[in-house]
Specification:
Elements (H helix, E strand, L loop, with lengths): L5 E2 H11 L3 E6 L2 E6 L24 H12 L3 H14 L5 H12 L3 H14 L4 H13 L3 H14 L5 H12 L4 E2 L1 H9 L4 H13 L4 H14 L4 H13 L3 H14 L4 H13 L3 H13 L3 H10 L6
Antiparallel strand pairs: 1-4, 2-3
Length: 310
Amino acid sequence: MTSSLVSLSEFCKRHSASGGSLHSLVLAGWMMLIVLLSSTAPASTGYTDYGLPDECKPFEDTFEKIRENLQNGYWIDAEMEVYRVRAKAPDCRLVPFYLGKIHYYRHQDRKALYYFNRLAEQYPDMQKVYHYRGLIFYQKGLVMVALEEFHKVMDLHRTIGSGYFIRYILPLLEKDGELDPSHIDTLLDAVTLDTARELTRGFLAYFQDDYESALVHFRAAVNHNRRHAAAWMYAGRCHEMLRQPVRARNAYNQAIAIDDSYASAWLYRGLIKLDQGNWYGGCRDLRTASSLENHAADLAIRNYCNRRPF
């Protein structure tokens, strides 16, 4: 439960100041402000289009062209490319996914849901399907149904960023522009996915600076799914805020062990190592984060790792 009634604007203000786009990090006596860019920060959505399954990989360039056409609003061109792929690879699951996406952009919700519903039955781990179904249900005013769909994304995406929560789940929890604890409890009690529900409660507490409560929820999420890397990572962030660096580092270790491409976990573990005087280990972690396109790590490397040969 959130600790008290708070306006949505105030919540977002706290998010920006305490753990979102700007972090103040004190390392080895130096103050450094790291701007965590949206593609890599915990505040980012941490979410991209569905990756290429094996049966679709021969058409990687074609799907890139399809994405470009959709971004530019060339829906007919995109649709023609999808049909060309279907003629050669009828089993490629991205064919019905992009057909559903095209119908979504055309506001043909019934046709879009036809494809998304079939995909959800055939490929229950295809996260983006639930995302688009959530968008459709939300636009139709079916808030509870949309909330469940977005929580399915949170549940399946093991490195989900808090930005996904901020953008897609938080607005559904407000009542008259405010975050009312009793209203939030009513909504979340109806969510059937334990891990995702605890993540949401954790984010709500975290961005209101209630790190002890947030930690309880992130740990609960871990207990429901010990393979959820984001739950471990945000538990680590809470430990850091509570000045428990050893426990934070252990949590980041767990996140990296689950998914060694989790850039934010490498970033924060590297910063802890630097703070503990482990220059070599810290810079090695930061360079790993940088190789995973975490731009905050690039800034940290310039400030701490390029001062002497690495």
